[in-house]
Fold these 2 entries.
Entry 1:
Amino acid sequence: MTDQVHGAARRERPRSPHFTIYRWPVTMATSITHRVTGLGLSAGTLLIAWWLVSIQFGPDLYIPFSNFVGSIFGQVILFGFVWALAYHFCNGIRHLAWDLGYGFNVRTAHWTGILVYVLSVLLAIAAFAWVYLVKGLSPL
Amino acid sequence: MSLDTPLHRVQGLGSSHSGVTHFWRQRVTAVALIPLVLWFGYAVLRLVGGSMIDTLTFFSHPLNAVLMATFMVILLYHMVLGLQVVIDDYVPSPGAKIALLLLSRAFALAIAGACIISLLRIVI
């Protein structure tokens, strides 16, 4: 009986502040995004290896790779990979600047964070736009 | 009173037992990856839409093959260091932690091996 009360009380008890109740500051979001894009890019190395192995192996492997990359799903994955690379690249440079002691001011860190998001999305869109429009490849 | 042994104190490596080695290597690989990622972006944008033969011709040039192999090795090393931070942060059980650390390294070695052998077979 007392155990049940304790159990219920434990369940009702307020928790210490957790990330779900914060309004996310930009700097927190950029930090988490850096990790998530890092994990995504780790998985993306499989795609690079598949590419290199398949061009070396010949059409038997290259045609499936080419079909995958050209499919809607493949293009979405590829866009995610390109954006993740652009983001991790830009935010990595931001981190290196911090390591050198620059940009630690709160307002500066806030705005460079927003800059990194905007720049990485623009870079990814620019890369795809260049391939579709300038190189004239059909989107699908 | 400190329970540190004199050897432990003089080594100054702290609780991680590796000092700043991990931090420093992550930064060095990060800096090295700046030009390499730019080159990789250039290479992919140049090759995309081309035929398999175009890509083979590109990588049969030794400079491109060496740059690609260097890019992959440094990228994978940077990846192992990064994954280690994530695993250290989120996996409290020592057994699972060691298993994941070994798995991430095995993954990196497998990818590096596949890429380097492919590049060698293209070049030679």
Entry 2:
Amino acid sequence: MSIKIIKKHSVNLLLPVALVMPVLTAAQTMVTEDDLLGDIQMVHSVTHMDQTLPETPASVTIIDRRMIDASPALDVVDLLRLVPGLQTYFVNANRPGVTYHTLGTPYPRRLEVKVDGRSVYEALFSSVEWNTLGVHLDDIGHIEVVRGANTSADGSNAFLASINIITRSPLLDKGWNLRSHAGGNHIRNGSLSYAGSVGEVSHRTSLSFRSNDGFDDFGDTALDDGAETITFGFKGLWTPSASDSLEFKLGMSNSNIGVGTFVSSSPGIGTDPRKIDVQYQHMQWNHLTDEGNKYEFIAYHNVLKMTDITQPVSLYGALSVFPDGHPVKTALLQLPDKVIINAESYGRSARVHTEFRAIFNQWDDFRGVTGIALRNDRVSSDTLFDGLGNVSEKTYRAYSNVEWTATDRIVLNGGVVAENDDTGTFTSYRVASNFRLAENQALRLAFNRGYRAPTLLESNQVSNVRYDANLILDMSVIADPDITREELSSSEIGYTGSFANSSITFDLRVFREELRDVIDERREQYPDVDQQINIRDNTDTISVEGVEWQAQYRPSHKVLVHANYSYVKSGGETLYRSTPNVEYRDLGGLSPGPAAGLLMSYMTDGGVSLSTMVNYQSPMTHPSGSKLEGYTRVDLKAMKKFSLNNSPAELSFVVQNAGTDYFEFYESNAFKTRYVIGLKLGFP
Amino acid sequence: MMPLAILHRLRCLIKSQAVCIAILFLIMPLMSSSSVYAESDLKTSRVLFVTSKKTAIYTQVVDLVKGNLRNQQANSYQFTVVLGKSFADAQINFSPDLIVTVGASASELVMKEKPVQPVLAVLITDSAFEILANKYYGSKAGAHAAQISVIGLDQPIERSIKLAKLLVPEAKIAGIMTGPSSQKNSAEFAEHVVAAAMTPKLVNIELTDNPIHKLEPIIRDSDVFIPVPDNRLVNIATARWVLQLSFRYQIPVIAYSKTYLDAGATAAIFSSVENVAKQTSEFITDEKMRIEAGAHMPAYYSIKFNYSVAGNLNIDLKTEQFYRNKLQADSE
């Protein structure tokens, strides 16, 4: 974007920033009641201010360390089954998908996922490659899931919801830690980490390896969806003064991930593992002022490189699927044979993000956060962006969120974000009012209007099979040049409460979400071999409504019960075909219906922890997936901590899906019972 | 299955965005009307509450005090509650017999006016009161001479030290963290640690210090760790590191607030809103205390435990009453 455009939009962009005007006051040097009685600030992700749950303008699920330890989960996606309204599924064994309420496609695009505030939503597929995150359960401090649109804090990607994974501080561990899992599906996971300090820098450095064979073959069809991943991560922490801290992280991973024959670009041809290399660098500086304000500066750089290796396909080989005498075959056989699908295709995406944020806590009844961010995404791929070379986009974002304690019973929240990218400038906002019904109980009314700009892929995709520079054999997908942003309007009534000295918590959300101009694909006639082209365009209108709740009971450190339930009903229509006839199709069949989860954990006096996690999903069909029966999955875990030659040790045994097989996304993905044994050893 | 009828009704409620926003803003003034502010009850003795803010803690203190007094002498008091900024008008219009300031900024606004009526400052730390007394009356003694009394909010540190020893009887070394405001009391803190049969390890964190670098060796070498409340910047800036390092070295932290406890400390001893309200009520009904102005240390305290953290540290917690009895016995 040019300087002129920046100037043109500067007024719009900076308006949200102007909403929070800092007024400097004299430094407060005395210790006041605020220092002793300050609230428990638990949630950061909703507005970027630290808020208690009754103050937040959205429903939030916190998965803390105790829940992680208690759960039989083996990876992050398993944990997200504890969040009401979140759909988690496996397109193949190593391609998890996560979405909120709707649009659970193979590449779900409307959920912001961050690791320590770094967006890992990557631009090439416009989705999250969960397997390459390099975050294992032992690395996680806690997870905050904002259930509902969070564009006013996180921008366009947080269209339906946002997830922030907070990794463990280097200060929490010391010395060497060795962890491993082995079990069914040839699960072989291992990690070695060291926590210590170099000079004044505390750090945690880890190296890990994960592999599995993926789902079992489907009849005679090999699914080829196993994976191997090696990850290196470093997290450093330096506190030069009491009011300053600097965190810096870097990591890289190398993965060979079987994409599976059902999602390969050429089904049935056979696909070798996709090679994905990821690296990132991330730093965050925090500064506290005497007035209690906080300034944060964040910068990061993500790079993903992908290589697909398939069997090369020649022209004559491709034509063999046509019957002899077919006019297309006859015509093309006049051309000399040559390779039309190369054995190797590549893709690359890179993101540079910088952000400055100021959080103002200096006023009695009013708090605010304001920030500006600049993001540059650059992608390239020979199969997704034919002939376009590098495609890039700069996004500018300015936002403010404010919280006003209007009375002792009412907290009002407002947030607005202005974003500018290649589609222009657009503004999203959220207003919410929280009414304190009683101590630790609040009723929330909230309204969101958000926009999501087309991703680089959605606005630039050109996927085809060429014979040469002048002859396109098959044009599969292109983007409509007039594609525009999606729009969401959502309303909710929420309730949050805690009882019995906070040992019981309950959260309820009743919602209605209207999505317009949702980007999908429509079909058109096209003069190529199959006479059809898919065009990415604003084709769908979707409405979603329902209710979800979660409850937790923690009477002591030995007992934990967490239950969650959601009922999501969605409907709408899609412009399925625009030529030769206009055809709309109903989307009502994609409604997720009821889903529920239950985690129970009990620790015996002997230090043995016993847990079970039950998940129910009603029958449903994912977009592009199979129509699946409902299922109830039961996972079990037994774990014992002990001391081995004065070193802490932990032995665990996990059973995943203790009952009959169920199916994930496709009817070919049978999730069979898995037995996994785990061992952790510490050498402080 | 979802109760569809209920869902349908709720759906109707939120179906219209306009209705949702309208509800949001219509309910607000209705609920505001339930606020205690500007309430005036026609009773006999006139007590003016001046609060720093209109948030829950302040209104709870006021409501609890009013409730306690009404239960004891239902027809003896007349109350008015105002925010600090409205004090001058309220003083003229209400002509109080006693002014009760709730919070430091309310105390400052009242002390600045030097009212002729007796004043009781509550929900204020010793440090804040001392600064205000010096600023407006020259000294604490000067403030007391002007009929300004105070009930301190911060619990005496010896209670925390004794509780630490009760929780970890085998503890030999107690780490104590001070900050810019509390460092002057370090010697006194050390004496209390020695009196509890432990060796003190003191660390002072200034704003320019690297907190982790200074805290780590102290926490590593301690058997229990006690942070002393200081100004908010120091508290916020250090609490995270204190708790993380204490987790690393498996050291129990005895905190000074429920906030700190919920964030990961093992136990906390602090003045709750109920504790403050109870002592305030007793002050108001005690004619002698009202006349003989002075400083009162908190008579009551709350003890809370983080059972999850204690379990992780293999601390076998007894009942709260057990520790309360022990602390009471020690102080007698």
